[in-house]
Amino acid sequence: MCNKFFYSVTITQKMGGCSSQSCHRCFFEYETERMIVVKSKVVGSVFRLIQFLILFYVIGYACVVQKSYQETDSVISSVTTKVKGTGFTNTSDLGARVWDVADYNIPPQGESSFFVLTNMIVTPNQTQSTCPELPNQSTICMSDSDCLEGSNDVRGNGIQTGLCMNYSETVKTCEVLSWCPLEIDINLPEHALLVAAEDFTVLIKNSVTYPKFNFHKRNILPDVNSSYLKQCKFNRKTDPDCPIFRLKDMVSEAEEDFQTMAIRGGVLGIMIDWSCDLDWPEHYCGPKYSFRRLDNKIPENNVAPGYNFRFAKYYKTTDGRETRTLIKAYGIRFDVIVFGTAGKFNMVPTIVNVGAALTFLSLVNAVCNWFLLTCTKKRDYYSKHKFTYLDNTDDNAGEPLGETTYGTR
Amino acid sequence: MCNKFFYSVTITQKMGGCSSQSCHRCFFEYETERMIVVKSKVVGSVFRLIQFLILFYVIGYACVVQKSYQETDSVISSVTTKVKGTGFTNTSDLGARVWDVADYNIPPQGESSFFVLTNMIVTPNQTQSTCPELPNQSTICMSDSDCLEGSNDVRGNGIQTGLCMNYSETVKTCEVLSWCPLEIDINLPEHALLVAAEDFTVLIKNSVTYPKFNFHKRNILPDVNSSYLKQCKFNRKTDPDCPIFRLKDMVSEAEEDFQTMAIRGGVLGIMIDWSCDLDWPEHYCGPKYSFRRLDNKIPENNVAPGYNFRFAKYYKTTDGRETRTLIKAYGIRFDVIVFGTAGKFNMVPTIVNVGAALTFLSLVNAVCNWFLLTCTKKRDYYSKHKFTYLDNTDDNAGEPLGETTYGTR
Amino acid sequence: MCNKFFYSVTITQKMGGCSSQSCHRCFFEYETERMIVVKSKVVGSVFRLIQFLILFYVIGYACVVQKSYQETDSVISSVTTKVKGTGFTNTSDLGARVWDVADYNIPPQGESSFFVLTNMIVTPNQTQSTCPELPNQSTICMSDSDCLEGSNDVRGNGIQTGLCMNYSETVKTCEVLSWCPLEIDINLPEHALLVAAEDFTVLIKNSVTYPKFNFHKRNILPDVNSSYLKQCKFNRKTDPDCPIFRLKDMVSEAEEDFQTMAIRGGVLGIMIDWSCDLDWPEHYCGPKYSFRRLDNKIPENNVAPGYNFRFAKYYKTTDGRETRTLIKAYGIRFDVIVFGTAGKFNMVPTIVNVGAALTFLSLVNAVCNWFLLTCTKKRDYYSKHKFTYLDNTDDNAGEPLGETTYGTR
User: Fold this and answer.
1) CA of A165 to nearest chain C CA: how many angstroms apart?
2) Residue A309 CB partners (closer than 8 Å, separation 6+)
3) pLDDT at residue A5, rounded to an integer
4) Looking at per-residue confidence, does A1 or B59 come out higher?
5) Residues 6+ apart with CB under 8 A from B398
6) Measured between alpha carbons, how far is B111 from C136 in angstroms, rounded to an integer?
7) Is the separation of the CB atoms in A310 and B108 below 8 Å?
């Protein structure tokens, strides 16, 4: 595509330049414009000033600020996380209980997105059986005729059996086949159960690759030693290279309160920025951490505020029936988001950018010519020397014309 | 790199322009080309036409259509999903049973990729023991000598014990140490068990960031209120902003049949396109949803068609032995794929693109010169005025030459 | 933005060209530079040589090598994996035991990141109770006064009860409330338990999309048939298109030893490169596989070397108490990383790159002029014809000047 295009461009140029002469002669001829030189401080200054501005733009802005002489590549990354810490809860449902990482970290594999349980509604000993639905506008009933056997509401908890049962002493609701007893999720503890979660720490291991530049690096920098890593904690000022983060510190950096967020849960982004200028030595290229809350905490248009999900542990009783403990888990999901663009000097973008900027140098002439021929006192004098008017109606084709054609204007 | 390059370019230009004169004089001189002006309607029209075409390209195509004056950035995104709905199955293995989100949604965490169980093969009460292998070419045996103790086929179900046992009344197969009884996965139900899954809904919460432009937005738009969100369902025409999707609607938009897909499973992509022109006000930038089946449904070259995986629930009997229920789960995995590029006006790409297009304006001259000097009647007349031939063999260097050199051609 | 900018550029050009004449006349006039033609083999050769170099760059480097005439798009991908194989272990804790995919593959869903268990520390029958801490500097005690009730170390295993208990016959440590007995993770088996894991295979199904070009493709190529897929194994030389990979082969390609890596675990990247030139027919665009270890295996600065995580299976005893089996799982996490950029011919980048390169053609003139006017013998002769000096102090404005002004220099 490109080749063809280019071929025709050069053909055109040659033909424009050599017209009907033979190509051999053409090759050893050099054409250059005839110029007039105007000695004018004003025009000269304007000309140099604009030239300077364009050069200043190219050097200052395009090269230094925007680094537009660089080829870029996007980061490819792999993340491993490991949470540490134990918490203690004492509730009526569960009694005194210690929570370790196998209990509160879901999923356990240490992927780039991990969840720390901070609050929960536990519904133990559920079995497949029937029980009255939770009361709401569509489930409250007076008699069996208000309930439709087999009906299955997307927002309900099971399949209606067609019976109307006592939910409490005052309220009757339709009976459903479901995991009973049903979860009552109104009584969310007002203080997060796993208070100690704020002191948990997470080790984030992140290795990145820029495939175009064959560049590999990890967030555990080579000058960091083992003993330091065993006891350090990330701190933007004192320990900016430590890859171990205290959960509360991360939430604070996102300008949130840990204990408030822990009640209803939320999603916290751990952003690792690997933007690098690879024209500099490799050790200048390091991770920059930042933290931002990703879910909506604003109370308007708030369906399912915070972050929670339900999961179950399944058991079998001695007679072979299945029971389960349903847990509605509230907590903070940490999403490690790695991004960045690396740039490195490359001929193509350099030539593209410098070339494009140089084009504007030729515009300077247009501006200065306009200035010279309209704004200066001697504009007619300049104009006469610059332009030679050839009259199309004059039929003396082939006859040499003196410079006096100026006068015919 | 750039600086050095540029320095030498400017040096070169100065020297070409000022030759041996002092720099001070040079600074206040302005050079401009001497031109001939041809009054020709044909050439003039051609010239303006080509100029117009180039300007038209720059304005019309590069700027309006391709927005090449914009700097671009790729989206960074975080997704939370929440499935709702209950289903009912009645099979000989499990009896009447209600399925809620904790049962059919795997993994439960509500990540960007979630799975809804629609069909399954359940093998309850497996224990670590020995049983005859499923019959196939390599496992059918006549006597113990056909079975190799300790052999372990990658496509088999366990470690051979070296015995040949009755699999059925007519077939003998090698015995294996495995989770027994073995799963027989030929009897996949012909109708998806969890028929009701098509009415399940999923709420997708998606927040995006364009880090270069410091732009943040969510798919729950600010003008959508809470009460609307509690009862809306996505519909491309009537409710395009509702982030709650009915599973069947999504599958239909991908031009698939839900109940057919539910039998063997599959992968459905929920593509959210956040491509935005950030030169416009922020509220014009919104998510565009589309749906596409991502796995291969074409029957040719079909290993493991559909989408399924095996998982187990582990139990302990009263005497401490471990048993498990193995489930081969068929269902639809929904992958929320967020993509997009945002563009915003930036000086560098503007200058690069405009500059490059302007270069072509100078090509117009080449074309018109060629036209003027070869195709017009008075080409010799024009040529004489345009070109002044300096003969290299002429030794009168330093002597002023009159315009009569024209005649020596 | 662009439009306005451009408008002013064209205005400027028109005014520079037409000065005070009426626009109508201007439209049908064509201006072209007056040139001198120098017949010089040296200058001509230099001129043509530099022109050739620039054209060579544009065609050879920018177009052929860098394909800078192409518009690019980043890949969007969906991955499904399925592991096959069974392993056998015989340990004092668990006895003889067969492991199938539901046991060792975590999570089971077949996502782009999957984990194969190869080694483990099993701590069965843990219950919520009290036991002495593992001995280390901060937990060893002489009497109860050394232990602080309620203290909770982030690196400890539970909440201290304030008592000092016999850990062994010689060592006393503070008692903690925790899942007891505690896991002793020093005794990691020196040979990976699941030796057979090296023969497991994984089927990787990967479908990619380039949304800008509406291009979709899968890594199971259309010319591959079902029977081949049932028995093939990926081999870079003999079976480069087979999407079924033996685990050991992948680890070997990453220049690691499977059995060494299996002991402490690790992370292996399966990189699928979909970089494509879409100007060629579709079937030239295929996946290129490569493998690289992603975690740090260098012993320096090695916190938590390898890759492991803890998870638990929960049981209930007949009296309703919860017990669990804690498993510290070591193994290899395989991360399927899909990347790539597709390019396709597009007008905008072509014009930008060709235009920018053409700009440099005009620089050739600057170089040749400098050469002509400083390095040739007849430089004064050339200079006189090229430049017409207009003296600013000369007041004869409006009076025609003959070419003899040359002599006034």
Assistant:
1) 29
2) A328, A329, B82, B108, B109, B110
3) 36
4) B59
5) C378, C380, C381, C384
6) 39
7) yes
Q: Is the pLDDT of residue A15 over 60?
A: no
- Partners of residue C128 on adjacent β-strands: C179
A303 vs B6, B203, B313: nearest CB:
B203
Of B283, B276, B275, B254, residue with least CA distance to B266: B254
User: What is the reported pLDDT for C397?
Assistant: 40
Cβ pair A33:B33 closer than 8 A? yes
Helix, strand, coil shares of chain C as percentages rounded to 5?
A: 30, 35, 35
CA A280, CA A284: separation in Å to the nearest integer?
Answer: 7
Contact C359 A363 (CB under 8 A): no
Residue B100 token pair:
């809620």
Q: What is the dihedral of CA C93, C97, C100, C105, to 10 degrees?
A: 10
Q: How far apart are CA B57 and CA B358, in angstroms?
A: 11
Contact A351 C360 (CB under 8 A): yes
Q: How far apart are CA C233 and CA B349, in angstroms?
A: 48
Contact A224/C at CB under 8 A: yes
User: What's the whole-model pTM score?
Assistant: 0.82
Name residue C246's amino acid: R
Phi, psi dihedrals of residue B55, rounded to the nearest 5°: -60, -40
CB B248 within 8 A of CB B201: no
> What residue type is assigned to position A230 of the chain?
K
Instruction: Please tell me whether residue A402 adopts helix, strand or coil conformation.
Output: coil
For Cα atoms A140, A144, A146, give the angle at the middle one, nearest 5 degrees. Answer: 50
Identify the band that residue C402 occupies on the pLDDT scale cut at 50, 70 and 90.
Answer: very low
C22 — contact with chain B (CB < 8 Å)? no
Average pLDDT in chain C: 81
Extract the tokens encoding C56.
């060579």
The conformation of residue B377, written as its DSSP 8-state character, comes to T
3-state secondary structure of C204: strand
At A317, list the tokens. Answer: 């009783």
Annotated binding site of C: 82-84, 201, 308-310, 328
pLDDT at A13 over 70: no
pLDDT category of residue C56 using cuts at 50, 70 and 90: confident
Beta strand C341-345 with C276-277: parallel, antiparallel or unpaired? parallel
d(CA B32, CA A37): 7
| Spatial contact of A187 and A93, defined as CB atoms under 8 Å apart | no
The neighbouring-strand residues paired with B131 are B176
Q: Is some CB atom of chain A closer than 8 A to the CB atom of C55?
A: yes
Residue B223, chain C, CB below 8 Å: the answer is no
Contact between chains at A355 and C354 (C-beta distance less than 8 A): no
Burial status of residue B119 (CB atoms within 10 A of its CB: 0-12, 13-18, 19 or more): buried
CB proximity A310 to B under 8 Å: yes
SS3 content of chain B, % helix, strand, coil (to 5): 30, 35, 35
Q: Name subunits touching C (3+ CB pairs < 8 A).
A: A, B
Instruction: Enter the tokens of residue A370.
Output: 């306009």
- Interface with chain C: mutation pick from A86, A199, A223, A318, highest number of C CBs within 10 Å: A86
Q: Do A38 and B28 touch (CB under 8 A)?
A: no
CA distances from C197 to A190, A345, B319, C232, C263 (A): 48, 45, 31, 18, 12
* Nearest by Cα to A30 from B103, C372, B273: C372
From chain A, the residues in CB contact with C388 under 8 A are 34-37, 385
Residue C307 phi, psi dihedral angles, 5° rounding: -145, 120
Closest-CA residue to A216 (of C308, C269, C247) = C269
Q: What average pLDDT does the structure give for chain B?
A: 81
Residue C168: exposure state from Cβ atoms within 10 A (0-12, 13-18, ≥19): exposed
What pLDDT, in 10s, does the model give residues A176-196? 999 999 998 887 888 899 988
List helix spans (H) across C57-122: 101-104
